[in-house]
Specification:
The chain has 202 residues and is an alpha/beta fold. The chain is built from four helices and eleven strands. It has one domain (2-200): 4-Layer Sandwich (Purple Acid Phosphatase, chain A, domain 2). Strands 6-3-2-1-11 form a five-stranded mixed beta sheet. Strands 7-8-9-10 form a four-stranded mixed beta sheet, with helices on one face. A two-stranded antiparallel sheet has the order 4-5. Strand 1, helix 1 and strand 2 form a beta-alpha-beta unit.
């Protein structure tokens, strides 16, 4: 199975509590991290692939190696193979550290890396997977899955925010628990729901 997520922001203490930027009702980053990890692993299996569209973690300690080790430990505890697309909070040093400590999961690397984005085909559509939302103009059968904007949504029906704070999960009949990567079926439901929503606005 394939899953999709973005903007986990592990360790990012400025996101704690109810704030204008990102309402995450946790008292500590440990609580937030544990919740995301548990909900992720409840859904994702070892053989699954999760596309993470950037802003993995925000942790600035000295020496830097301590931060990188802590982030690696969290990512290594997550089920599945992770296809990581670089976000604005993801450093080159992090990707290098993950690559250096990469290992095989059922014969395939645990981590795969993309600086800008990836293109996949799924359910008779093309999906551009990027951190930042793309303004593609009028397109057919192309959807941009993205993160970056947290609890906002791009007012374009072809753009779907898959971040863990996304308001576009309101298009789902059943919202997954916080931090759970979205399934292919949920992506399709969000795409269909946003299309219907925009048709009503005309």
């Amino acid at each position: 199975m394939q899953y999709f997520t973005s903007d986990t922001h592990f360790f990012h203490d400025r996101l704690l509590g109810i704030s204008e930027f990102s309402p995450r009702p946790f008292l500590t980053v440990e609580d937030m991290n544990e919740t995301i990890i548990n909900n992720w692993n409840t859904r994702v299996g070892e053989n699954d692939v999760v596309y993470h569209l950037g802003d993995i973690a925000v942790l600035h300690t000295r020496p830097e190696k301590d931060s990188l080790e802590q982030i690696f430990e969290v990512l290594d505890s997550l089920n599945g193979r992770l296809v990581l697309i670089k976000g604005n909070h993801d450093s080159r040093a992090l990707f290098k550290y993950l690559e250096k400590n990469n290992h095989l999961v059922n014969g395939k690397p645990k981590f795969e890396f993309h600086d800008v984005g990836a293109l996949i085909k799924m359910n008779h559509r093309q999906y551009y997977l990027t951190h930042y939302p793309m303004m593609m103009g009028i397109v057919k059968q192309i959807i941009n899955l993205h993160g970056h904007i947290h609890h906002y949504a791009v007012p374009v029906k072809e753009n779907i925010n898959v971040g863990i704070d996304t308001p576009e999960s309101d298009y789902l009949k059943e919202k997954p628990a916080f931090g759970t990567p979205f399934s292919e079926a949920e992506i399709e439901e969000m795409v269909a729901g946003k299309k219907v929503d925009f048709a009503k606005r005309k």
